[in-house]
Design a protein that fits this description.
Elements lengths: L13 E3 L7 E8 L3 E10 L1 H17 L2 E12 L1 H16 L3 E5 L3 H9 L7 E3 L2 H12 L1
Helix pairs in contact: 1-2
Length: 138
């Protein structure tokens, strides 16, 4: 049986939302039937956090595994932290997995300052997050 980590890291299909304010960009890529990668670019603040939360919830209803790539986040405010935390809580309640890829100094600082780093599971890269998740789903 092929695992997600055995597959080349390519986007199976991509939906780009044009409903987001210009401060944030969100791309969703499918990885097999059970995984989605949500790539966030820009600022996650009060005006954009609701859109992020809506996107994460939608992806969790479509897949058991959601990887959130925060590498291109330029600002992560309290509303964005709350959206991520609540999405993680929902994933746990539904026996789904939410994984963060966070090499953004700004996003890491915000998560640490809020005392939330221990609440999430992190991976160094999107392919690593998909491999880790594929092994845990077996």
């Amino acid at each position: 049986m092929a695992h997600l980590c055995d597959l080349p890291y390519i986007v199976r299909s991509m939906n780009v939302s044009s409903d987001f304010p210009p401060d944030i960009g969100v791309r969703v890529a499918e990885h097999g039937l059970d995984a989605r990668v949500v790539t966030v670019v820009g600022q996650i603040d009060t005006p954009t956090a609701l859109e992020l939360a809506t996107s994460l919830i939608a992806q969790m209803t479509a897949a058991r595994v959601v990887v959130v790539d925060l590498d291109a986040v330029r600002f992560l405010g309290s509303a964005g932290l709350s959206a991520l935390f609540e999405a993680n809580e929902l994933a746990t309640q539904q026996d789904h997995a939410l994984r963060l890829v966070c090499n953004s100094r700004i996003a890491n600082w915000a998560l640490a300052a809020a005392g939330l780093r221990d609440c999430f599971t992190f991976a160094d890269s999107v392919p690593d997050a998909l491999c880790t998740v594929a092994v845990s789903l077996d």
